[in-house]
Amino acid sequence: MVITIRNTDDFIRALRENEEFRDAARRELLTEDLLNLPGEFREFRSGVEEFMVGSNEFRSSVEEFMVGSNEFRAGMEGFRESAKREFAELNYKVDDLRGHLLESKMHTRLRQRLGRELGLDKVRVIWMPSGNGVQPQSRAQRFSDNLDRALETDQLTSSEVDRLLDTDMIVWTSRISDGATVYVAVEASGVMGVRDIDRARESARVLTKLYDAPAIPAVYGFSIASEQTELARSDPDAGLQEVHVFPELERF
Predict the structure, then answer these.
(1) Which secondary structure element, helix H or strand E, spans residue 182, and what is its range?
(2) Dihedral of the CA atoms 122, 113, 186, 109 (nearest 10)?
(3) Mean pLDDT of 206-231
(4) Residue 193: what are its φ and ψ, rounded to 5°?
(5) What is the C-alpha to C-alpha distance for residues 67 and 111, in angstroms, rounded to an integer?
(6) pLDDT per residue over 90-103, tens digit each?
(7) What pLDDT, in 10s, does the model give residues 108-133?
(8) How does DSSP assign 211-250, residue by residue?
């Protein structure tokens, strides 16, 4: 096909209307790299689109991993807290089972500590419900006789007498500072709780009523919760005397 070109308009028309002429002109005017650029750009755009799809899938996988990681971490925290609570409960149960051992040993293990920590001298056991052979029979008999007289003269009620008879250990001693007679009422328990604290306070109150002398409440055991430690503090507004806490550190 013959193409006549006389001016610029003829050249432009030929480019638009004749594909063969247009391809030939392009090959003459453009380099091979420029000719291949549209195809390469299409490949590049396809690659970018594939990359974006893969990137979104990767981001989704990372988000799922983070969610799973957070759930695992939360599960481990829950397991750790649960294990800590169960271990503490197990310790409390073991301590509670060991409670009876305390009563058999406290007359020797606790007497010196009472004297040292409370500023007392010549700490002597005058009563232990199951303390046969621990306190001299004469002291136990004298204590029992005092309770009988207090009950007969209505100085003490029967419930107050029972409270003293049930107290795990009662000692008779004197203050180092002024030599005044002092009594100490001790409640022993593997796990020192509210009941022990209340009993020690009540026993000390009754001892003061019986002997008209100061009496100190104390508890002795393997462990005590922080809440009970607070309850053992003195509260003058409520008329509550401080209960001295003596933890036994040795696991016999």
Answers:
(1) strand 181-188
(2) -100
(3) 93
(4) -125, -170
(5) 59
(6) 455 544 555 567 77
(7) 889 889 999 999 999 999 999 865 55
(8) HSS-EEEEEEESEE-HHHHHHTS-BGGGTBPPPEEEE--S
